[in-house]
């Protein structure tokens, strides 16, 4: 028998603590009683002031020690090694989502998963075939069923991590279709588990083996970014972004907004574990450019530490006012912001023939 977590045996140090509680002598208060006839069997305990007493046979103590020993053994996760029954087909799914770029496992989760899968390729036995699938924004068949290790190695070396999510449902559906006519086939998934909901496979009874990669969850990520006209002032642009704390600890960082290479604003942010901070930056419109938001928190995944979005320069709103004499409406439109107002009969030279015809029709009504 072997142990998956032998370090859990350190919890066995709590066994002497339980015994120590039984050795400690209880302190009793002194009271006056009319007779000691019924108390003689306890006089021996009250004659000594020592903090410890002799350990007596106690079934409760034995039961507590047994339960504690079983708990420590369970924490160490014992297992029995057995012989591997070679399956004729193995479908290997490699997670290539953005979260696999995390560096909590060196050099990254993706490289660690690829190294594990490489050992499975090298252990391929005669008569066994293997399929290599890559689960990313779309499922890719890196290598169809083959018994050639060289082809599997080449396909594995060509696999690349992506910046998108893992469509694991699609990958599992494809794997299920590949093993449908193979009774002893297996599906192996190498992933960090960040693959979304898989409820539809709960009752499929798939021969699935999950190989987890990753040791911790420490990531601060931008989850949304949008650039729009400021609803309070159309002459300005508003940059909306959301920052999520996906760690188990509070995070204090700064978020900066840049247009091209020029930093426009910097904001301090503090978030509790699992919290989401929504930020709004108001900027004066300029030429078409790329807005970028980035944070300075230290985490294991750099792919989502910044987000960028192209924003075209705002163009004036062209309003064609059909009719004359409504000065209040004209004044309201002219003071609304970036509005180019054209009254009937004063059309600019670049107005299309269709616009001129529409203007004449509106004027006739």
Verbal overview:
The strands form 5 sheets. This protein has a 5-stranded mixed beta sheet with strand order 5-4-3-6-7, sandwiched between helices. A 4-stranded antiparallel beta sheet has the order 11-10-13-14, with no helix packed on it. The termini are far apart. 24% of the residues lie in helices and 29% in strands. It is flat. The chain folds into 4 domains: 2-79, no CATH class; 89-212, von Willebrand factor, type A domain (Rossmann fold, 3-Layer(aba) Sandwich), CATH 3.40.50.410; 220-311, Immunoglobulins (Immunoglobulin-like, Sandwich), CATH 2.60.40; 317-364, no CATH class. By secondary structure, it is of the alpha/beta class.
- The end-to-end distance, rounded to whole angstroms, is 94 Å
CATH superfamily of the largest domain: von Willebrand factor, type A domain
Q: Count of helices?
A: 8
**General form:** flat
**Known CATH architecture of the largest domain:** 3-Layer(aba) Sandwich
Summing up helix and strand content along with how strands pair, one would put the structural category as: alpha/beta
- The number of strands is 16
Biggest sheet, in brief?
5 strands, mixed
Give the averaged pLDDT, no decimals: 80
CATH top level of the largest domain is Alpha Beta
Key attributes of the depicted protein:
about 375 residues, alpha/beta, Rossmann fold, Immunoglobulin-like, 4 domains, 5-stranded mixed beta sheet, 4-stranded antiparallel beta sheet, 8 helices, 16 strands, flat, disordered C terminus
